[in-house]
Amino acid sequence: MKFASTTLVFVVSALLALGLVMLYSAAMFHRGGASLGSQLLWCCIGVGVCLFAAMADYQLLKKVSVPALVLAILLLVAVMIPGIGLERNGARRWLQLPGTTFQPSEFAKLAVIIALAHYCERKGRRMGTFRYGLLIPGAMLALFLGLIFIEPDWGATVLLATVCGLMLFLAGTKLRFIIPPVVMLGAAGGFLLSQNTVRLNRIMSWLDPEGTKQGVGYQAWQSLIALGSGGTTGLGLGNGRQKLGFVPEHQTDFIFSVIGEELGLIATMGIVVAFVLLVICGAFIAMRARDFFGYMLASGMTLLIGLQAFINIGVVTSTLPNKGLPLPFISRGGTNLVVMLFCVGVLLSVARFASREEQANTAGACDSGGYSPFQAKT
Q1: Which residues lie below 8 Å from residue 34, measured CB to CB, with a gap of 6+?
Q2: What angle do CA 351, 272, 16 make, to 5 degrees?
Q3: Taking the mean position of all CA atoms in its chain, how far away is CA 88?
Q4: So where are the chain's domains?
Q5: Where are the alpha helices (DSSP H) in 172-254?
Q6: pLDDT in tens, 274-296
Q7: What does the alpha-carbon distance between residue 338 and residue 336 come to, in Å, rounded to a whole number?
Q8: What residues does 94 pair with on adjacent strands?
Q9: Which residues sit opposite 374 in a β-bridge?
Q10: Which of 245, 265, 293, 339 has CA atoms 20 to 30 A from the CA of 123?
Q11: To 10 degrees, what angle do helices 218-230 and 255-287 make?
Q12: Which segments of 27-103 does DSSP mark as H helices, in order?
C-alpha cells in the first residue's frame, strides 16, 4: 500500500509540474505570467485541499453526502438563471465569484460519486435487485445528468454517466439491468445529436478531419499538425508554433498538442504512462480498502480521473470527437484542478486507513489483508 501511495504522489506531482511549465510555454505570447500566476494560486489551493482530504478520515464524507447533493442541485439550477450564470459560447456553465469563476458541474461530479458510494454501501446485497440496483440510483443520476446536459455540457454528462454506471456495476448491479437504459440513452443521445447542428458538425469533422479542416474541424486538424510536427523528441520547450493562435484552446482542452509539438512523442507517451500508473494505483488502493465505502469511493475517484484523461487525449489525437474536457492536472482551470487534487487526497486517505487496518491485522495475527470487494456486501 505504501508503494502505491508513493507512486500516486510522485505521478501527480510530476503531472502538476509539467502542467505549470507547459502552461507558461503555451501562454508565453499571450499573458503567460498572468496565466501562470493564476494557475499557481489554484495549484496551491488544490494541494491544500488534497492534504486536508488525505489527513482526514474519508468516512466523514458520509455525513456530508446528502448536504453536498442538495448544494450541487442548487448550484446547477442557479447557473441556469440569467444574470447569475455566465454564458460563454452558447453554454451557461459558470458562476461568477470575486476574481474568478466557478463551474458547478465539477462540484456535482464529486457530490454524486460520494453519495453513490455511500448509497451502495448501505444497500449492500440489495444492489443486485432492480429497485435498489438501478431504479433508485438511476432516478438520482437522471436529475443531475439532466441539469448538466441542458447547460449544455455533453462531455461532462457522458463522463459522469459512465463513471456512475461503472460504479453501479462494481457495486453488484446486474448487467441485464444496466444494458437496456444504456441502449435507450444512446438512442436518445443520437436523436438529440441529429437535432443539434453544432455537435453534429463536430461528429462530421471527426469522421472527416481533412475535409473540414478549414471549418469546424480546424482546431482538431491543427492539433494533429502540432503532434506530427513534434516528432519523437519535439521542437524544444517554448519553440512550438501552433500555440501562436492556430490551436485556439491550446492552454486548456488541447494543451496535450502543445506538449507533443514541443517535447515530442517521448513526453506524450510519458503522460499516457503516468495516467495508466495513476489508474493502477487507484485500483490497488480500492481493492485494499478497509470497507466497502472506501472501495466504492476510491473506485469512483479513480474512474473520474482516468476516464477524463482518456477522453481528453482521445479528443486531441482525433480518436474521439470533441468533448471539451480538460486534461487532469495539466490544463488551465482552477475548479477542475482542485477537484482532481481532492480526488487524489481521498485516495490517499483510503490508502492510509487501509494500511492501519493491515498493521492491526498483522499485530493480531489475522490472515485478512484488508477489505475485499468480493466479500459479502452487507
Answers
A1: none
A2: 65
A3: 21
A4: 2-363
A5: 175-195, 197-207, 218-230
A6: 999 999 999 999 999 999 999 99
A7: 5
A8: 86
A9: none
A10: 339
A11: 80
A12: 32-55, 61-78
